[in-house]
Amino acid sequence: MKYKEKLIAIKLKKAGKSYCEILKVIKVSRGTLSLWLRDIKIDSKNRKKVLIGREKSRYLAALAKKEDRVQRTKKIVDSAEKEFKILAKKELFLCGLLLYWAEGDKKQERVKFANSDKDMIKLMMRWFREVCHVPESKFRIALHIHSLHISHDVAEYWSKITGVSRKQFNKIYVKKTTLKNRRVPLYEGTCSIVVNSKELFRRIVGWKKGLIVHFKI
After folding, report:
1. Nearest by Cα to 103 from 85, 111, 196, 202
2. What 3-state DSSP class applies to 186?
3. Considering only CA atoms, which of 117, 114, 102, 118 is closest in space to residue 162?
4. Which of 18, 54, 94, 134 is the S-S candidate for 128 at Cβ 3.0 to 4.6 Å?
5. Whole-prediction pTM
């Protein structure tokens, strides 16, 4: 038996260290450590101090992580805001930015634009590709359609409109309806262009800020 190691383990355990922390110091199996420490009890005062210490450490770590995220976000937004004056010379940039401001997702840190107008979707796909430089592999397409309008070729239809492979389509969401007849015979549902990129989302926020300042809104 590793008597010296066992004594160190017991001392660490009484000091309130967890098994994971002890195993970093004592090179034994978890089963052996459990056997050594199964009858060791920790003083309630020491346990409380340890728990408070760990909670404080976790809180400080979370706080530091949040501050780092805030600073990184600010850096991207500020940089994008400054980019606006240069990019504003391009018509496609302004058209796409205004459309995203009107119809795009602004609540979550992801990029999502939804519409049922095929020409608007085509324009936004150009914006994402030519202005935002989104890699083809990052595009995801989500379709929403009423059960009354569902057709077997709806995914193929939007695949041709967007130029995105059907392999990158999410499962089609079909909403049930009590209607019996099509009101709009050519309706092909709502197409959502999704790009899971926090950086792009933050850049769009910065561009919007630049637009607001430029036009003194």
Report:
1. 111
2. coil
3. 118
4. 134
5. 0.67
Using the 8-state DSSP alphabet, how is residue 128 labeled? I
Q: Where are the domains of the chain?
A: 3-42, 71-214
One pLDDT digit (tens) per residue for the chain, 217 residues: 577 888 887 777 777 777 788 888 888 888 887 887 787 776 666 666 655 656 666 755 676 777 877 888 888 888 888 999 899 999 999 999 999 999 999 888 889 999 999 999 999 999 999 999 999 999 999 998 876 666 668 899 999 999 999 999 998 888 776 655 555 555 688 999 999 999 999 999 999 999 999 888 8
Length of the chain: 217
Secondary structure, 3-state, 150-175: CCCCHHHHHHHHHCCCHHHECCCEEE
